[in-house]
Design goal:
Elements: H1 35-44, H2 47-51, H3 70-88, H4 92-101, H5 110-120, H6 129-140, E1 145-146, E2 149-150, H7 157-162, H8 188-194, H9 205-228, H10 240-253, H11 260-271, H12 284-313, H13 329-347, H14 353-372, H15 380-388, H16 392-405, H17 408-420
Antiparallel strand pairs: 1-2
Helix pairs in contact: 1-4, 3-4, 3-9, 3-12, 4-9, 5-14, 9-12, 9-13, 10-13, 11-13, 14-16, 14-17, 15-16
Length: 440
């Protein structure tokens, strides 16, 4: 396969010709758009992005008309990232594309679904949402095919690199015990191409902006959803016992190296702001106040990151590996507190345990049916990949790819069709799965 051999497009300011190369050569295009604008457009029009509209963010997709899905979260991350990129001088379309795509690889049922698929796939490479995102961008999402090899969206090197949140393979990161990694073994060639010339284990600036924007949007908007949905009453944090219990969850989930007192100080700094919502009643005025608090928090965090990064790197535009994002310690703790409060009152709530168990059963059942029935229940796209696979591990990976493409709604619907509806003369292995062809 030829890599980056098409006529070289105009290179955006601050980037090198190698940054705009694509994994597979493409015919020359009109120069009306930059290569990075094309990247963003390809992500925006992808089916993988659309499917995020029916995938869980924190609360279940479809559980409430207000709560965020993976899609609305990704759009908000992209807006935060674009604003930071414009302030720092890296290309906003590269950052935008990375932010829009950063959650594409997440399976149904959010982080719980990710853990279940990782356990199922433990013997053939595991599962990780970011590694799955790379696989979608460079292989699974139909756009460009060269020599019978699918190349996914065939984004530029800079855009693919910007989407790699964990630049290492499984077990090779700074914490070998961590479940976080950015590439499966059979995607190593395109990963190595995207990372050519990059310092080992270091994210490019655009990926750092995406990561920081994800944390900012996640922390602020999940709190907004939790308050609006009634899971979190911020007034309860005035009770010392309630406050300590909540901050213990924050510490356990996000900041095990920091004391409860440090976290209490971070929360107190936010509570001292004039826009902090101590109570939420659901009235128009209260809803407007909560929205203003979310806006103020985003402005506080992004402003802090931009100012600290500028102090460290100077005023010149920064792109690729010319500098690093700086998140001040106080800002990082405030973000962690907000993320942890969402964890305490939503994700780690005892009421969620039966939901998580049901989600695990759904995914394990679907995997068993798809694996034991060969390619008969796979969509045409994945059926083709199944027959091209070299061995059983590769075929198992195809099954995982199929399941990861499902939305929460589709996973539940298929499971109900197979295991809940009244039995017929057909076995589960014989019964056709409805709707698979539309998943990718």
């Amino acid at each position: 396969m030829a890599h980056g051999t098409s006529s070289v497009p105009v290179t955006p300011v601050g980037y090198a010709p190698a940054d705009v190369e694509r994994w597979a050569a493409e015919p020359p295009k009109s120069q009306a758009r930059t290569p990075f604008q094309r990247d963003r457009a390809r992500v925006l029009h992808s089916s993988a992005l659309r499917r995020l509209g029916a995938k869980t963010q924190v609360l279940g997709a479809g559980s409430d008309d207000f709560v965020r899905t993976r899609l609305t979260h990704s759009l908000e991350v992209a807006q935060v990232g674009r604003d930071i990129a414009l302030e720092l001088g890296c290309d906003p379309d590269v950052v935008d594309a990375a932010c829009l795509s950063h959650d594409m690889g997440h399976p149904p049922f959010g982080h719980n679904g990710e853990m279940v698929l990782d356990a199922i796939a433990a013997d053939f490479g595991g599962f990780e949402g970011n590694a799955q995102t790379l696989r979608l961008l460079t292989r699974l999402e139909p756009k460009v095919i060269v020599d019978d090899r699918p190349c996914g969206l065939n984004l530029t090197r800079a855009a693919v690199d910007a989407a790699i949140k964990y630049p290492w393979a499984r077990g090779e990161g700074p914490d070998p015990a961590s479940s976080k990694f950015g590439v499966y073994a059979d995607d190593a060639p395109v990963y190595d191409w995207a990372r050519r010339g990059a310092p080992e284990g270091v994210k490019c600036l655009e990926a750092q902006v995406m990561d920081a924007s994800d944390d900012i949007a996640y922390s602020v908007h999940d709190i907004e959803d939790a308050v609006t949905g009634g899971s979190l009453d911020l007034a309860r944090l005035r009770d010392p016992l309630e406050r300590h219990a909540a901050l213990y969850v924050v510490q356990d989930w996000y900041t095990p190296d920091r004391s409860i007192d440090d976290l209490d100080e971070a929360l107190a700094r936010l509570e001292a702001q004039p826009w902090w919502m101590g109570e939420f009643t659901g009235s128009m005025r209260s809803a407007a106040g909560l929205k203003d608090m979310a806006s103020q928090l985003i402005g506080r965090f992004t402003g802090s990151v931009v100012a600290a990064t500028r102090r460290a790197c100077g005023d010149a535009p920064i792109a690729r590996y010319a500098g690093s994002i700086v998140v001040p310690e106080e800002t990082g703790l405030e973000i962690a507190v907000l993320k942890g409060l969402a964890a305490a009152y939503v994700m780690s709530s005892a009421s969620q345990a039966p939901v998580y168990e049901q989600q695990e059963q759904i995914l394990r059942d679907l995997y068993a049916v798809l694996w034991n029935s060969g390619s008969s229940h796979l969509s045409p796209l994945f059926r083709e990949m199944w027959h091209a696979a070299a061995d059983d591990d590769a075929r198992r990976r195809v099954v995982i790819d199929q399941i990861a493409s499902y939305t929460d709604v589709t996973a539940r619907r298929l499971h109900e069709a197979l295991f809940v509806e009244p039995a017929t003369h057909m076995t589960a292995a014989d019964r056709p799965l409805p709707g698979l062809g539309s998943e990718l």
